[in-house]
Request: fold
Amino acid sequence: MTEDASPSADLARHAALLSGADMSHTRSEDEGTPALTLSDGPNGLAMNLPDWSGKVPATCFPSGTALAATWDESLVTAVAAAIGREARAAGADVLLGPSINIKRSPLGGRGFEYYSEDPFVAGRIGAAFVNGVQSAGVGACVKHFALNSQETDRMRVSAEVSDRALREIYLAAFEHVVTTASPAMVMASYNKVNGTYATQSRHLLTEVLRDEWGFDGAVVSDWGAVDDRVEALRAGLDLEMPGPGIGSLRRILAAVDDGDLDPATVVQSAERLRLVADSWGGRPAVAADLDRHHELAVNAAAASIVLLTNDGVLPLSTTGGTVAVIGELARVPHYQGGGSANASATRLDTPLEALVEALDRSVIFSAGYSSDAGERQRLADDAVRAAREADIAIVFLGPGEGSESEGYDRGSLELPPEQRALLTRVTAANPRTVVVLDNGGIVLTSPWSQHVAALVEAWLPGQGGGTAIARVLTGAVNPSGRLTETIPLRLADTPAFPSFPGHGGRVMHGEGVFVGYRGYDHSEREVAFPFGHGLSYTQFAYDGPAVIDDGDQTGDVLVEFTLSNVGDVAGAEVWQVYIRPEHRGDDRPVRTLAAFGKSQLAAGATTRIIATIPARAFAHWDERREGWATDAGSYLVELAASSRDIRTVTTVRRVASRPPTTLTSRSTLREWLTEPEVGQSLLHVASEVDPSGATGGFLSNPTILTMLGDIPIERLFDDPTTRLDADLLTRAVVASGRQAGAVVPG
Reply:
């Protein structure tokens, strides 16, 4: 055997693939495995030029929050496909997106990149994005797995979370994307989860991601996230980025030589990377139609805009009178967030230019505010004069450039004080004032929103945002965006407020499953604007729903309803279906989103809709049994226009469903007694009258049973009054009809 063909050389060849070649490429092999080019791009290709002097020009689409606010999976797929085509044109093989972490707190600096406070929305929009990217021949890398919901201390902080919240809130979107869209890669996040780095969590990367969900792609680290390369590899992390990773290669080979790492683990990860490279690498470049993509960016931005309030001043008449456009953000918009997602836009439509073009009216512009404190008074005075002279004032407000970015969290949800002061003066000068918000994550709107004639949430709308805003304000496009996160009255009302962003290297997720609207409903807090809210220039009526298939009380449920446009103009409605347990404990959310869709209707039109409610929507994570459980009983099926605008209701019944559990002698008495069938059998067997006529001692006393319920049952074996032993437990299991394997003596 030659030296090159030796076992050690062969292992080194495999191990070399497990680290990147540089900042954005994987390694290739002489045998034909191509190198992969990886590029960021959750809202547009963000690929660095070879000399790192900038980025490849690319269409900047709306931010993640804006895309999700469309509630339109087909539109998101189209946007992602366009991003994929531009990635192919630039030579990228894998796109580092979508970003589907849960918006636990609106202070999260990267919140603009994430989709929702609700995992069902995040999962559905995320899957649509993956499908779009991969339809263009580019692999998608879903990120950041898991619990990367803040930027503060993100490379060290440990997210402390219950198993139930982990499953129901923070993993659910990833589960949906992985099991329905099959992304090429999954990116492990920087942070720790319950004390273990995500990159080193075998539970997350192997037991959950691969064994439970069936993921067969490659797991890559976030850039610089690996603390211990050998432990990460053992946990299931295939690729460390960035490269060249010479030190990691040495550590891997040394661990194998020392017997600390199974060489089969190295080979397995290398084979996964070869499969991804063979599937997605080396494809020919394709041409991208940037003009067409820009119009798609405009359409996506228009569909994302949320009309929060409207006292009848919108849509604007395009003729007659004077319009004052106030705010520097109308002239120099903040259209995308900072950090790795930042794209180099091919062009930029500004709201001011778009409004001047769309309106056959006199338009007065006033900057209104500036970062230069010496200019603020003069600019504000000019803006007030413009508002007073105009028939209507449109004021553009927002936190501004640099306020929302990867790498740091937001310090406040308030608009800058100079903007709030300006707005007070403008609304006093002209009560017909429309506010357009330019922001990534939500901003507080109370109390000033009560004094404006209309409030429009435009998000970070990408390069086509200016034209999109003009189309919505003038009625060329009927607004159809809806909130995917709640806007609270106060920051202190947010469920995560007591613990965000943590201290001492830990952030406690003490709110559990009560994230977002689940938390506001649970605490019965009033909010400024609820999850799912958004107005239209028309009105919609709901009739139904009726259950047409109850899934035999265990499977998916089909509900039918009709939706009618009862207004005078065409429009799109985002219908939402929530599930609410008729009888629930304090540990269950009031309601959870279970289905949604977006329906476009002409004026006066009616459509029949059949919505599928997945069986999982009725379930909760049972921590003791480590599986999904459904409680028996009635559930309300709420047809809604938002989480607090319930239009019609019906009911459906479910039978109990419990995951199988293994009872051992170390299980508590309560766990034994509450297990269906087994518990009753145990009581019966243990309470049998013995030859002397004695009963089962304390097992006949309900009070004693309650008091001793948390004691491991083996601790009671030596008590002569209990008559409990391993043989009796086995007899109880057999009597219940369960398999003998259900009891494992400790």
Notes: The chain has four domains: 9-24+184-280, 291-529, 540-654, 663-744.
